[in-house]
Amino acid sequence: MMVALLLRSRWRGTTWRLAMAACAAAALGGGRAAALTLQFDYRYDAAGFFGTAAAPTPARTALEFAARTFTSFSDDLAAIQPLAGNFWQALLLDPATGADATLANLAIPAGTVQIFAAARDLPGSQLAQGSIGRVTGAISGGSAFTNAVLNRGQGDVSLDVGPWGGSIAFDVARDDGTTRQWHFDPNSPPAAEAYDFYTAAVHELAHVLGFGTSSAFLKDVAGGQFIGPAVQQLYQNPAPLAGQHFSATVSSPPFLGVQPRPSLGPFIGRGERKLFTPLDYAAMADLGWSVPSQSLGLPGDVDADYDVDGADFMLWQQSVGAFGAPGDVNGDRTVDAYDGWVLQQYLGSRAYNLEAPPSEAAGVPEPAARMLGVLALAALTAARRPAALRGVAAASPAAAP
């Protein structure tokens, strides 16, 4: 199955566990699994959109920065290590052509999800496309090898997602044949006429990791709503869905005042940056990923006083380079520049106590006005394809081409 980003039409078919305090505490308990590694493979990028390791393009730098959204996730993903007598075949969507591709006996280290990345002229108003990897044909090997291939040793695929990887593609041309305008720098807001590459990349990576594309997602869907316990704990109700995404009416707690729309909602617009909100992280937790507790509350609230201000910044700044110290905003147990970047995105935000939400936090708030200016909205429409989950980003009719 695939999920994709559209400019202003709808998304088309395509590295956390909460239960809020309980599941988060369990995830952070003794013997925490190793951090998730998203390993990008550019073998299909013949056009050079992502450059090389020695000479990376801005697109490559932005994609690998976007991966930091997920690398504080942890899980015991078993290695896929074909030995003599073992055989398996990965099925993926070729990001350079959109056709099915197979790779025999792909070796993937423990704790790693391998993602093939390239760019091409996506059809219509699509911006990007994320696809979870599948397995095709017979698997030869013992039960441990078979389980590693099918769900990375995670057991029931409907309870805990464990992909070997997948693919992600980005659009290079508008409908009129001109070059697609991307904004690649995560350290500056996107210009009014450009689409934010970071925003599209984070959304599609979540689809590769199972949101909207896995059995673990489907088990939490009922009556057009997402009913996972972590999401319900945070949202205080089932969260309405629009296909493989949160509905456009959904916003993320626990913010006071105007609440941000989740990254995994149906819209993206020119000049807009969407961050991965606590609600997005809660959804990933419901899929089986172990999510640090920091990601499930107000991001950047280092001193736990329900706001993000200069005091939080000072605590982060004083802890840079430390391990497991205050200032570890994303929960990967290391205080670094990325923690400062996340904190900066939320400066000025305030939150309520999740154990006693105020009355003004109830209902469906409006989108955050501070989200770097939403101009032309982009929607996402889900469309299925055999053996793959695809995600496409497309422009709104008003924003096309």
In short:
With about 400 residues, the chain is an alpha+beta fold.
What keyword list fits this structure?
single chain; 401 residues; 5-stranded mixed β-sheet; alpha+beta; 4-stranded antiparallel β-sheet; disordered C terminus
Explained architecture:
The chain has one domain (2-292). It has nine helices and 14 strands. It has helices at residues 21-27, 58-66, 143-151, 197-208, 215-218, 229-235, 278-286, 310-319, 337-345, and strands at residues 2-6, 37-41, 89-93, 100-104, 112-120, 126-132, 134-135, 165-171, 182-183, 195-196, 221-222, 225-226, 239-242, 245-246. It is globular. The model is unreliable at 7-32, 360-391 and 394-400 (pLDDT under 50).
Helix amount: 10-25%
Distance between the termini: 26 Å
Task: List the total number of helices.
Answer: 9
Radius of gyration: 20 Å
Low-confidence stretches: 7-32, 360-391, 394-400
How many domains? The number is 1
Shape: globular
Structural class: alpha+beta
